[in-house]
Amino acid sequence: MTLWRPSSAGRLTLNVLLSFAQFEREVTAERIRDKVAASKKKGMWMGGNVPLGYEVWDRKLVIDEDESRTVRWLFERYLDLGSIRDLSIEARAAHLYRRPTRRVSGSAFGRGNLHHLLTSPIYVGRIRHKDAVYDGEHPAIVDRVVFDQVQGMLTEQSPKRRSAKSHRDIHLLYGLLRDEAGKNLVSTHANSHGKRYRYYVSRTGDGKEHDQTDKTNVRTVWRLSSTIIEPLVEQQLHAILSDKKQLASWCEDTESAARLADVLTAAVTLSTRYSAIENHIEKQEILRMVFAGITLRNDAMVLEIASDRLIAALLDGAVNPQGSAQRHSSHNAIATITVPIILKRRGVEAKIILENTPLAAPQKDQMLIAMIAKAHLYLEALTDGSGAGHTEVAERLGIHGPDISRILPIAFLSPKITEAILTGRQPADLTIAKLTRMLDLPMGWSDQAALLTA
After folding, report:
1. Could you tell me the pLDDT band of residue 73, with boundaries at 50, 70 and 90?
2. Distances in Å between the alpha carbon of 229 and those of 86, 236, 272, 349?
3. Kind and range of the H or E run holding 381
4. Smallest Cα–Cα separation from 263: which of 313, 229, 223?
């Protein structure tokens, strides 16, 4: 009998059968979901990818002693570092990798992988099902106190929903910075000890530092702290608004020479007003009104100024520059100013120093200062006459043993270098990473100076 017939009876029969088939699929799916929920409520592991640190025996999770040591190290090390990104770097340096799969063979821990691992209740002997968490049948790998401390630190460092009062924590140059290849720099941030650090980084895509359009051309990968680049651009903003000769030239180009006095007065007013503004969104709007873009090169910073838009806004009144910018958005005259720079590497970051300008006020590296304090604390604990070794000191201070060997050499820095660090006058590339990775730090003060401050 043919079910499908070009008649109403045939179509009715087919639709009834299809409805019953759909009903059976939905009933089966509901039974499976209920079975999984009931099993997880009893604490049973219901299959899937085996978590790192466990292996499956008789359909139950049992501890894998080798991998469980890696899991405990990741939890304890995160409490010391307070940063998933730094934890990922240290895990790679310690040659710790994810469990190989059929598709991937032992890849490095990424930030997403580490966050998933650190937040998984399975490591304290519990099973998660949707929003509920139940006691599991499997043994715990991580102590509950350590797990709760990690969750508290992760919660504290998680990004907060932006409110009207959090405008001070925005990237002023968002959408303006780009590299020499014309690719925009991406705004990002990192949290450490309850403080947010903002950066502008290159969009590398595949993680390679090469321009994909030209295999022979190596493109600089930028990672700029907002505390370095933003003040430099603001300094150039004030220089532009105080350059009477340049403003007069732009007035002539826009046929506004007759109102040059008004432009100069408004420029001074805008510069003064910008310095007094506390709302970072208003600052961002002024920067976007003046600058059409900022291109970073290894030897220069190229400022693209929307000169006609700037002059029009100053003539309309610098009290409300964002409104003027919108009304004159059709103008497209661009003037360029090239500012020579000196680029110094600071680990993965880059520090820009403007040539032929007064030195900026020193900025203390609080984390580097704290590292020096730790090094002297470890040295004092080892030389207090108690005869304690590295292991005993690590247990007494509650730290990871290898950290003592890694940090202790910093206590033997020369007084001149130590003083420079404490006053914020150390070289831009003198960082914690550079010091702690220097296994053969010379003991001679002159050799240290030649190596670290050259």
Report:
1. very high
2. 23, 11, 20, 12
3. helix 366-382
4. 313
The DSSP string of 116-149 is HHHT-GGGGTEEEETTEEEE-SSPPSS-HHHHHH
Task: Give yes or no for a contact between 172 and 288, defined as CB atoms under 8 angstroms apart.
Answer: no
Q: Angle, to 10 degrees, between the axis of helix 415-422 and the axis of helix 445-452?
A: 40
Phi-psi region of 384 (alpha: psi -120 to 50; beta: other; left: phi over 0): alpha
In sign, the C-alpha dihedral spanning 51, 57, 61, 64 is negative
Sorted by sequence, the CB contacts under 8 Å of residue 60 that are 6+ apart come out as 45, 137, 138
Mean pLDDT of the chain: 78
| CA-closest candidate to residue 85, choices 113, 105, 106 | 113
The percent of residues above 90 in pLDDT, for the chain, comes to 4
Rounded distance, CA 228 to CA 346, Å?
A: 12
- Per-residue pLDDT for 217 more than 80? no
* Topology of the domain comprising 54-157: Hect, E3 ligase catalytic domain fold (3.90.1750)
CA 324 remoteness from chain centre: 35
Q: Is the dihedral of CA 368, 72, 146, 86 positive or negative?
A: positive
**Rounded distance between C-alpha atoms, residue 16 and residue 22, angstroms:** 10
Sign, Cα dihedral of 226, 229, 232, 238? negative
203 backbone φψ class: left, alpha, beta (φ>0; ψ -120 to 50): beta
Query: For position 41, what pLDDT does the model report?
Result: 81
In total, the chain counts a number of residues equal to: 454
Based on the number of CB atoms within 10 Å of its own CB, is 154 exposed (0-12), middle (13-18) or buried (19 or more)?
Answer: middle
Residue ranges per domain, the chain?
54-157, 177-205+219-354, 366-452
pLDDT digits (tens, 9 = 90+) for 285-343: 888 888 888 888 877 888 888 888 888 888 875 334 444 444 444 445 788 888 887 66
Order of strands across the sheet that contains 223-225: 186-192, 195-201, 223-225
